[in-house]
Amino acid sequence: QTVPEELQNGGGFGYVVAFRPLGTVSWMQTVVASPDAARYVFRNESLPPFSPYEVKVGVYNNKGEGSFSPVTVVYSAEEEPTRAPTTVLARSLSASDVEVSWAPPWDNQHKGRIQGYEVRCWRHDEKEENAKRIRTMGNQTSTRVSNLRGNALYHLAVRAYNTAGTGPSSAAVNVTTKKPRESCQTSPCQVFVQIFQAQPFYFIFFVRFFPVLYRWNRQSSTSVIETNKTSVELSLPFEEDYIIEIKPFSDGGDGSSSEQIRIPKISNAYARGSGSSTSSACTLSALSTIMISLTARSSL
């Protein structure tokens, strides 16, 4: 950092830069005459990359030299890493995330410090130059790669980097993301039951209500819904067989039941298709006095 003008204490102010290779005795010195100068570059083509030097900076003006700063160690410019990370492993965490880990390169420190690692990830049907890139900092040797496609094959490779650039890439490893969970939530099957009178029309006035009995085909317990109308809508799960029967009830008691009507299971394939509503309908006749029209409607 430069010295403020009020502390320069005279004209002809400048800096003295002294430096030497770490571990040697003799100092090399140079003068920087500008009071506003904040850097000095020492050029030497034979200087090995990332060589440590001891440096101190002093001041002077027309009256003489001042004191030096404390000695600090700096390094000459480094080269990009020359070796690739080793032992690269990848595992799938979910449909959209994978974890990749690695070991540092062997014998790299003479060229420069590793500032971090760059992970490249690309899908099998993509070009490597379009890979997603994630950078870590410092000594971190694992990271998570997110926002991937489910049930897809990915390639991953790792390389070290520093201020000079990135080093060579490791061999690519493969990982397949997990299959995504079903994101499609299906609504229950809506079964519309319409009751038609098979006896003379006046008979309907004697009926108080119609108990509609339904049960899962593999269960013995029965659910009942009562209606005083000639239609009712039931919500039944997909992919299960259901049994429905209806019998009228009047002041004189229960009437004769209809025959048992089986509602076959409706495959979720309907719901996973175009996303639009689908429907199927059938008309079934009962044994005695009623007829049932069943319309199964499914929707996303």
UniProtKB/TrEMBL annotation:
It is found in: Cell membrane. The keyword Signal applies. Keywords: Cell adhesion, Cell membrane, Disulfide bond, Glycoprotein, Lipoprotein, Membrane, Repeat, Signal. GO terms for molecular function: cell-cell adhesion mediator activity. It holds the Pfam family fn3. GO terms for cellular component: axon; plasma membrane. GO terms for biological process: axon guidance; brain development. Residues 1-79, 84-180 form the Fibronectin type-III domain. The keyword RNA-binding does not apply. PANTHER family: CONTACTIN 3B-RELATED (PTHR44170:SF18), PROTEIN SIDEKICK (PTHR44170). This is CNTN4 protein. It comes from Cettia cetti. The gene is Cntn4_0.
